[in-house]
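re: that complex we talked abt at group meeting.

here r the seqs, copy pasted straight from the sheet so there may be weird spacing, ignore it
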Amino acid sequence: MARRVGLEVSLACAEAVKLANADVVAAYPITPQTHIVEHLAELVADGHLDAEFIPVESEHSAMSACIGSSAAGARTFTSSASQGLALMHEMLYIASSMRLPIVMAVANRSLSGPISIWNDHSDVMGERDTGWIQYFCENGQEVLDLTLTAFKIAEDPRVLLPVMVNMDGFILTHVIEPILMPEQAEVDAWLPPYVPQLCLDPAKPISMGMVGVPEVYTEAKRAQVQAINDSYPIILEHWASFAKQFGRSYQPVESYRTEDAEAVFVSMGSLSETIMSAVDEMRAAGQKVGVVRIRLWRPFPVAEFTKAVAKAETLVVIDRNLTFGAPAGPVATEVRALLFSQGIQKYVANFEAGLGGRDVTRDQFKEMLAKAQKAKAAGQDMTCEMVGVKE
Amino acid sequence: MIEVRFHGRGGQGAVTSAELMALAAIAEGKYAQAFPSFGPERRGAPVQAFLRISDQPIRLREKIYQPDVVVVLDPSLLASGNVKAGLKAGGTLVANSSKSVEAVQGECGFTGRTAVADASKIAEEELGVPITNTTMLGVLLKAVELVKMDSIKEPLDGRFGKQGVKNFGALSRAFNETTIKE
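got the structure back, here u go
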């Protein structure tokens, strides 16, 4: 039976890594990820987690160590954020192209400058095309559950790709809330030890990470693209088996009060909890509005997303990050592109909210919707509209 | 849902106050959320911490702008306008002060329900340190029964180990020495 405990969400993430019996943790501390790594260091030092903890000198080294340990067949975890994730950047491609099932928790934080330790999604958006499976958690329970499922998905021989578990820095990581903590035996039954398909072994030498001359590079990359596309049904399969074992169900796209909604908010991460409360208030005032949350960002759930927003005339897409000089933020750009490519006509407004830790309130969501509706009625585009700017 | 905002100075443990209450509420089977004001921690600087307790799951990730209860750990913060900002007219002010309830209300500019105890003195005498975060929970619980007194024991022990009992003593004394003006 699961225990219901009050726990800081960072610690819930670390406890998930312990429940998963990770073999290697290589990480470099950075706010707001610090508590995850500190707690793991403690668990290893106190003998509660039988793992090798590698305190590296930088995030670049952290990912390099993870690549080595995963290639040697170890269940491998790391965590980072912001500038640290940016410093890992080049190694992220190596991990995915070598098909190494590393799991990384990202405590999402803005990028400098100005220097900011606070939350937004700028860090992960810079890593969008690194070939990792990427998803976003909404609350502490999801952080625990989806960190566990990350190992299951990554290590499936049909997948063999690294998984990035995104959780809003501070806004999730530093909150104490109720968490249902599964028993070790339950997790063991569901998540057996990692069995590598190929690994570095002096007795049976192989090479990994070879050069790809023009004659093979395209084919190698095509295989990698195929791998992440093919991972989609397997991700769903493992979330379904998690639901069967633990009773909590996860879908790539979540909808709330969208049945008859004329307007739908689209968001990722913890913002959607506040949006749900705002939607309840707007519904009470007679507005037909709902919210669609993208949980799985890579591979993008095209069919599920399209279905989720099918009935709405207006989409209010929130990007929790900036774009510079682009027609829309990254999430809105994808939404617009995929609707256009399917010949679906909708009004897609785009807001940039919650930058560098700026609080986003229920009232602001109501204002966003009002602005979007006004712009729509006036036949104007509404894009990259920054929320809450002090003029 | 009850929303509480804690005001203290860096090092006084406002965040711990919110966390202990959340842990006690969760142990009672309630839903709760405790979080800091996410700033760089600077000793002595004004800090805030937030607490929500509800019988229903809490789906909010914004700060608390219209608290039902404001708890002030440091008497020197009472005169700052931030303390009563957004405090509901029917809400409760819970203050650490050696002064009378009326004097506290005057300092703060708040005329509603107010609970006061000299938590600095109690903490000095019971704990030997002027850190009022656990002591003030006694004043808070006297003013608003957010959780049962017994429910706070385990979180105190979990946080302070052997010092948990002493902290509960300070908290209980503050509970008994609280003056409330409705």
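couple things i noticed - The two ends of chain B are 21 Å apart (CA to CA). Chain B touches chain A through 24 residues (CB under 8 Å).
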